[in-house]
Amino acid sequence: MKALLLKSFGGPESFELSEVPTPVPQAGQVLVRVHATSINPLDFQVRRGDYPDLVQLPTITGHDVSGVVEAVGPGGTSFAPGDEVWYTPQIFDGPGSYAEYHVAHESIVARKPASLSHLEAASLTLVGGTAWEALVVRAALRVGESILIHGGAGGVGHVAIQMAKAIGARVFTTVREANFEFAKSLGADVMIDYEKEDYVDVIMRETAGRGVDVVFDTIGGNTLSRSPDALAQLGRVVSIVDIAQPQNVVQAWGKNASYHFVFTRQNRGKLDELSALIERGQLRPHVGAVYSLADIPLAHARLESRDNGLQGKIAISVAP
Asked: Most exposed: 51, 102, 145, 212, by fewest CB within 10 Å?
């Protein structure tokens, strides 16, 4: 099979399109013909060497799969050849999705929503699971609460806006002015141009000084230290960014705030919850660009660029 191998840590040129053996499903596993995958910040973080102790080179990376079951390993009972499925491969535990075939344990695999194309489904598995873990499991966002979602036009952010609205929250989001209409179409109530406005000032004005119940950090920087200034009492901060520099969160003490750090855990149940939202018309991934398997290096370079003009996700078409 064709696969994009990461031969060394570094820039997008570190990938090499290669022929490698097609994997064979073992007990409890399924072999999936990958129709589509997508690009996430985690992918370029792995590529550039942010996690050298967890990645053994050469490797196949990639963290989204939408495809069709090709074969079922011994003892498998959940799927049959021909089933359309979607899932996030186990992160740092075996080959990823930048390949024509992938094997996974059936416990993390779910049936793909029929209303989504493979490109759409592959654009949602990791970011959708991340948003669900952040908003539902960790922040426990409730009906009538308010939330600030940083980076609302991005991969995780555009999903989080829709999810927060489905829960029944009032949504603030930071985006460039050029993305205001996109964020509004997703359900955002208040758009904040982070290039021209201070989000703390806007939130305190719009909430009459109360603040928001939840801050969802998808961007890093000084968000952890600044979030208490925008929080209501007993507010929650959820971050999906691994920030190396120290952060002073003493202001959080006065707000009785709690902080949660999320690294997505894979399971079928989470995907089934996302499917329910999709079937009710409350969630839809937005594919902002499509590249081929061979052009993944170009996709990486674009996602890493701050001025990439992207809305939503970059999808990768692997099979027709």
From this structure: 51
